[in-house]
Amino acid sequence: MERDAYLAGVAELYTGEIIGEGLASRWLEMTDDPQRQYKLMLFLQFESEAKVRLRPFLVSLGLGIAESAEARAAGIAAAETFANLPWCEGMRQLADLSRPYLARYEALLAAAPASDWPWVSFMAVHEAAVVRFAELEAAQHEGAIHALLPLLSFAPSPPG
User: Fold this and answer.
1) Which residue, 4, 17, 109, 113, is most buried by CB atoms nearer than 10 A?
2) Cα–Cα nearest to 120, from 109, 128, 129
3) In this structure, which CATH number among 3.30.980.10, 1.10.3810.10, 1.20.1260.10, 1.10.275.10 belongs to the domain 3-151?
4) Would the pTM of this model clear 0.70, i.e. be above it?
5) DSSP state of 153
């Protein structure tokens, strides 16, 4: 992978988190069920933590960290769609939306220099966790949140 394509891929890691954060935030806003709100709070925190974690990496590569309003709007638009579906179908679609990101992150990892591997590897693991969470949630698996929890530094407390 040539350097420009690699840098564009790294920038996409950050953009993907902005999209995910917009999606999670808006979907949370549109959800009334306390258990689903908690799951969406975890997802929002998951996306936010990854975005913040990526900033030093992007800066070290000379990439900007200004957030794209278009990326956030894309996430919000996806949430509008997902929130209007039955919960399991919305989660299935979240998994479908996330799988191409996972494939691109894995390809980026294969091209990453050794010095970048911890950053890009983290993002591949992160995206795999999003896919796994959404798949398990779509299947109504009670332990779906455990796909996210081990990767969170600051998990919100469950509802009382």
Assistant:
1) 17
2) 109
3) 1.20.1260.10
4) yes
5) S
